[in-house]
């Protein structure tokens, strides 16, 4: 599996890509949502670059023998921890968590694999408090 510089757009996009493939299917609704949310812009990359990274990530998973189109997360725990460790910036972590939650919920059902990715993000990034922080109302 390739590694990317810490907090790079590519490292961040790989977390998004993992969420997209975590339910065992790259659905049109997920791809459409990537465009509607302008995820590529939020991560600081071009649309084509994001789609190329999604392809490259799937190739890496296939070559490592980890891509198992099933309901479980397509990477092992160590790889999942390594991917999460590439994101150190607190604001980027929150942005990614928000995007990944939206992607996981786009089909009105959070699959086991998607839940595994989201839980790993919260645990590895220490975002437990962020999940339960009340929103401010003016």
TrEMBL record:
It comes from the Bacteria. Residues 11-132 form the Co-chaperone DjlA N-terminal domain. CDD domains: terB. It holds the Pfam family TerB. This is Tellurite resistance TerB family protein.
């Amino acid at each position: 599996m390739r590694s990317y510089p810490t907090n790079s757009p590519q490292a961040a996009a790989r977390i998004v890509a993992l969420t997209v493939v975590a339910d065992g299917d790259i659905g049109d609704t997920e791809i459409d949502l990537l465009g509607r949310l302008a995820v590529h812009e939020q991560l600081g990359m071009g649309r084509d670059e994001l789609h190329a990274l999604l392809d490259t990530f799937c190739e890496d998973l296939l070559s490592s023998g980890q891509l198992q189109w099933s309901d479980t997360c397509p990477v092992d725990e160590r790889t999942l921890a390594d991917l999460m460790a590439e994101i150190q910036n607190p604001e980027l972590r929150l942005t990614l968590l928000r995007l990944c939650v939206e992607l996981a919920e786009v089909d009105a059902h959070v699959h086991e694999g998607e839940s595994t990715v989201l839980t790993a993000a919260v645990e590895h990034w220490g975002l437990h408090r962020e999940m339960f922080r009340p929103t401010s109302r003016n």
